[in-house]
Structure formats: structure tokens, C-alpha cells
Amino acid sequence: MDEFLKEAINEAKKGLSEGGIPIGSVLVKDGKIIGRGHNKRVQQDNPMIHAEIDCLMNAGRIGSYKNTILYSTLMPCYLCAGAVVQFGIKKIVAGESETFHGAKEFMESHGVEVVNMNDTECIMMMRDFIAENPKLWNEDIGEL
Question: How far apart are the C-alpha atoms of 80 and 95, rounded to whole Å?
Fold first, then answer.
């Protein structure tokens, strides 16, 4: 397994252990993790703190994002895809898009390379969470 996706999975598990939604993300530049985060919507009662947003916030101001890669356990939604496009991140590696299709086409239409790993651990983690927490998941994706 990709070492950076594994770190994103660790972030997702951290979020789950805090009572949150198990989605994690890391930002990589020059082969090093410069930011990490996980979905904190539940923990901080804030609908904007998706994993990718938390990751970018934790990375801080880095100047140019053109040589970075954003890893996420789940295909980014339109909110997070908008941040990717806005900051000029050129590559996304998603753990999976089976449980949530996300905004792949939107990112690709803006020149972002999107790699879907179809990772079994990411798929099972989200399937289990959605089965156990359908109302919370539907709130997260705006389908309540």
C-alpha cells in the first residue's frame, strides 16, 4: 500500500476514534507530509471541517501548491475539490469513490490529475460507517 494513503487512513481512524466521520487526508510535497487532517464536523460542530480542509489548514501557508499531492481516503466532494482547484493542487490520490463519487470530473476539468486507488480498507471503513450511521453520513453529504 502507498505510504501516504496509509497515513491518510491513520487520520481517518483517528477521526473515527473521536466519534467523527472516518475520512483522512495528507498533503505531500517533495516526498514529505507537510499537512495532515481528518473530518472534524462532529467533533467541532462545524460543517466546513472536512478532512481535506483540515489538512490544508494544518499545512498552513506554504506559498505555491503546484508541486503538492493531496491524498484523501475518499474522493473529495465539491467543497474540497473547490479548494484543490483554488490552490492549484495538480494531483489528488483518493482511497476510493465507491461509497461516494465525489467531484472527480470537476477536478479533472480544471486540470487536476485524479488517481483512484480503489483501496479495500478505505471502502470497508466507509461502508461500515455508513451502515452504522446513515443519518450522520447523509448530513455530511447534504442529503438529509
Answer: 15
Give, for 62, the enclosing helix (H) or strand (E).
none
CA separation for the pair 110, 29 (Å, rounded): 20
Dist. CA 34–CA 47, nearest whole Å: 24
The number of residues in the chain equals: 144
Please say whether the dihedral angle defined by the alpha carbons of residues 77, 101, 109 and 90, taken in this order, is positive or negative: positive
Compute the distance between CA of residue 129 and CA of residue 110 in angstroms, rounded to an integer.
31
- pLDDT tens sequence across 42-87: 999 999 999 999 999 999 999 999 999 999 999 999 999 999 999 9
Q: Please enumerate in sequence order all residues whose Cβ is within 8 A of that of 121, keeping only pairs 6 or more positions apart, or say none.
A: 1, 9, 95
Helices (H), 33-97: 51-59, 78-87
Percent of the chain beyond pLDDT 70?
Answer: 99
Active site residues: 52
